[in-house]
Amino acid sequence: MFTGIIEDIGRIYQVRRQRETIKLGITVTNLDLATTQIGASIAVNGVCLTIVSRQGQRFVADVMPETFRVTNLAKLIINDQVNLERALPVNGRFEGHIVLGHVDQTTTIVQRQQDQSAIVVTFKTPAALIQQIVTKGSIAIDGISLTIVEANRQTFKIGLIPHSQQEATLAAKKVGNLVNLETDILGKYVMQHLKSTAKGHLVGTL
């Protein structure tokens, strides 16, 4: 489990593709990989990956076909920057929202605006996620825990404060760039419960 609080911005040094699998090599800046074990989970642009090898300030992780198809990791090239967050330890401080590292879908940036010290970024709302993206709700975008400022059936907006602009990659993204989305897991469970309740009620009235 993750929190959406980015720990570091890594840089891609290796991309080895074989059909729909990738072996990604990433250089870290601030993370101490000496304390990170092989087999540990790490979120890369919000995608939960497993560290399969590490040396110094570099680690390697595998991207399987499903992840290749659903996320923006397939678009990465050498020198691209990525958001990094290690899995939350049992005794860790919980500060963002519950992020599983299981990307629902990708979407694109449709607008960027400066609002005093904040950058307001507008995204296209994927049709499959309309009911899960709500105003003032939580969402992870490329692994960053953010609050949805405004949402409708076509688009939704988030705001980046100066700290978020500096500590993650989203502020550097341009209109048309692809990002990973993970909606709030609590909202998903509520939706599933409501559907099950409605279905049970319908069956009971037949």
UniProtKB/TrEMBL annotation:
InterPro entries: ATP_synth_asu-like_sf (IPR023366), Lumazine-bd (IPR001783), Lumazine-bd_dom (IPR026017), Riboflavin_synthase-like_b-brl (IPR017938). Its EC number is 2.5.1.9. Pathway: Cofactor biosynthesis; riboflavin biosynthesis; riboflavin from 2-hydroxy-3-oxobutyl phosphate and 5-amino-6-(D-ribitylamino)uracil: step 2/2. GO terms for molecular function: riboflavin synthase activity. It catalyses: 2 6,7-dimethyl-8-(1-D-ribityl)lumazine + H(+) = 5-amino-6-(D-ribitylamino)uracil + riboflavin. It is an enzyme of class 2 (transferase). It comes from the Bacteria. Keywords: Repeat, Riboflavin biosynthesis, Transferase. GO terms for biological process: riboflavin biosynthetic process. Pfam families: Lum_binding. Catalyzes the dismutation of two molecules of 6,7-dimethyl-8-ribityllumazine, resulting in the formation of riboflavin and 5-amino-6-(D-ribitylamino)uracil. Homotrimer. NCBIfam families: PRK09289.1, ribE. This is Riboflavin synthase.
